[in-house]
Amino acid sequence: MRKLLLLFGIMAIVASCGNDHDENWDSQMAPKIILDNGTGIYTVKNGRELTISPSYEHANEALFVWSIDGKIVSRESHLTYKAENTGEVFVLLSVSNHNGTTEEELRIDVVDKEIPTISLAGVESGYKILIGKELVFNPIVTQTSIPTTYKWTVNGEVVSTEKDYTFKSQEKGTFNLKFATENEDGSDNIEFTVENCTADELPFSWTFDQTEYNMSIGRSLHLMPLDITNAIDVIYKWTMESQEAALQEGSDPVLIFTPTKTGTYKLTITAKSQYIGELSQTMTINVCPAEGSYYHAANGSSKADFSKVYEIVVAPGQFVGQITSGTTMETACSAAETTLRNNGYVSLGGFGGYIIVGFDHSIDNKGNYDFAIRGNSFSNSSEPGIVWVMQDENGDGLPNDTWYELKGSEYGKAETIQDYAVTYYRPKSLGMPIAWKDNQGKKGNLNLNPQYPTWVTGDSYTLRGSCLQARNEDTSGSGTYWENRNYDWGYADNYSKIDMITNDGNNYFKISDAVTYDGKPANLKYIDFIKVQVGVNAQSGWLGEISTEVLGFTDYNLTKK
Prior knowledge:
This protein is mainly beta. The protein folds into 4 domains: 32-111, Sandwich (Immunoglobulin-like); 118-201, Immunoglobulin-like (Sandwich), CATH 2.60.40; 208-288, Immunoglobulins (Immunoglobulin-like, Sandwich); 308-421 and 449-456 and 463-559, no CATH class. The protein is built from 3 helices and 44 strands. The strands form 14 sheets. The chain has a 6-stranded antiparallel sheet. A 5-stranded mixed sheet has the order 2-9-8-5-6, with no helix packed on it. The termini are far apart. 29% of the residues are buried.
């Protein structure tokens, strides 16, 4: 019995010592930090608060220190951080007890709020339409990763909760439209009017690309107002200063002017109807000496490469920012010139973007290939640029005379538009899609990181030229592989088996392919300036807009000497 009691006593003592050991073991451990997200990387939107709440082991009576850039910001077991600036913030968490210190470095990524922003082309001036006609609105709204709502109201009444809306009414009058979008980060809205008009109330409009022209004697000039709208029963009358009789009068606004002597002429076109009354525009025509009067023959010091970039007006596009110093036309031209001389490429953006260069001499028409334009095309990766040429007809050394298009393989085809224009609209914020509409009633947007050129000051601008039918195709069927198929011949940055007569990326061109406004041979003996203009309005998925790239201009005739 005594032995048994002694055994129980020993066991009790051993058990007691074991419990003390466990408690002591825990109290002798350094703190352990267990992050609440497992990665140590947190994301918060600018202007919002983020709370980081790790859990801990062996942290009884521990000291907590949170610091940013060496400055203590909290001594609590958790951290509440107010985001004020976008970017990365590195946080050091230190937990200490009598047995040691444990540290964890955390990162907070502060990102912008995803506020939906609206862009709608032409909304600033409102809209006027014929009673009963549909007006389709396709606003651009910045994409967000969080749910976003839409609401259309007409005269205060909700008419749609979809992004796109088609307005139509049989009632005459002015309607107040509002489009609003909202998510948890913010909201945006636009308000504008739609006026339902009768035919006689619709506003007549026209535009003129230029009001002063230079031309050589012996040639004809094609004069016409552009983008004529709502010309109901309008009669056009062309008159010339100091001449009583009208040059032309009727429903046709186009005048073919063929002067018989040099000098300066003042021509006026007047549009008249019972609805608009009278509107007029006067143009100055400088008729210069005959072709050849200002011919600049090449000499021993003449360079085969272009001498100067005179003008560059790119369309919006994903590579517009390459001309980083271009804040004025002058600085943009300088930047483009430097890029070309350093064997870099200049991207002209979407449809209509153009560049104009000149040489230190006139390029002769030898009847074969006369000059070259280098691009970066390869098979099924063509971004065709329409090529235009000009003589220095007034002898002032500037490209302010008459442009002649070089006829390519697509010239004169039914699907080729000779007078195509696209208007681009400045987005509300960087990175937003850029809206456009054309003179054929179509509209859309450039949506792959497009940039609005920094040297274009207006909130919108229009580019005009010839437009080819697009030949791009998603051959994968899933958007992963696009082909920008080739055209036969006659375009810059186009992979042609005909006019790429060398293996150096050059397309070669004949001055003899220059045509007048009516498609007839221009018969130019030489040229002084070259313009390349993006000739397609299309986008190829993840590749972005079809954008002509140029890398150089060369007088091929001079290289053959």
